[in-house]
Amino acid sequence: QLHLVESGGGLVQPGGSLRLSCTSSGSSLDYYAIGWFRQAPGREREGVSCISSSGITTKYADSVKDRFTISRDLGKKTVYLQMNNLKPEDTAVYYCAADLQILSDDVPSREDEYDFWGQGTQVTVSS
């Protein structure tokens, strides 16, 4: 069983930056593709970014391209989401999710392909 924990959320002004972390308290994340999703009040959860277990393949939603960067630190069992030039519309609860993809360059794009989810971390972008 994989237990995911997100951290790094908070309140930031428009144009500011935050770095979210997704860690595992148990098994290593090395064999999992990781996705970041977010859900704003009154809206459905949407995919933000994802990274393959190999770290080679990354994908981004159009709304965050060139502003967000996903990366993984294999030794620290952590996946990061660096968020720059944040906008009020980025305000949401951010979740990380994992799908077992051993030594794969594939990245699941659908939410229902991910088997393990964290509890989420709140990101608020406001002046």
Helical stretch count? 0
What kind of oligomer do you see? single chain
Largest sheet: 7 strands, mixed
The geometry reads as: globular
Strand proportion, as a percent range, falls in: over 45%
Distance between the termini: 40 Å
Our Rg estimate from Cα atoms comes to 13 Å
Query: What is the average of the pLDDT values?
Result: 94
H/E order of the elements? EEEEEEEEEEE
Helix content: under 10%
Number of strands: 11
Class based on secondary structure composition and strand pairing: mainly beta
Topology:
Blueprint: E1 4-7, E2 10-12, E3 18-24, E4 32-39, E5 46-51, E6 58-60, E7 68-73, E8 78-83, E9 92-100, E10 116-117, E11 121-125
Parallel strand pairs: 2-11
Antiparallel strand pairs: 1-3, 3-8, 4-5, 4-9, 5-6, 7-8, 9-10, 9-11
Describe the structure.
There is one protein chain. The protein is mainly beta. 0% of the residues lie in helices and 46% in strands. It has no helices and 11 strands. The strands form 2 sheets. Strands 2, 4, 5, 6, 9, 10 and 11 form a 7-stranded mixed β-sheet that branches.
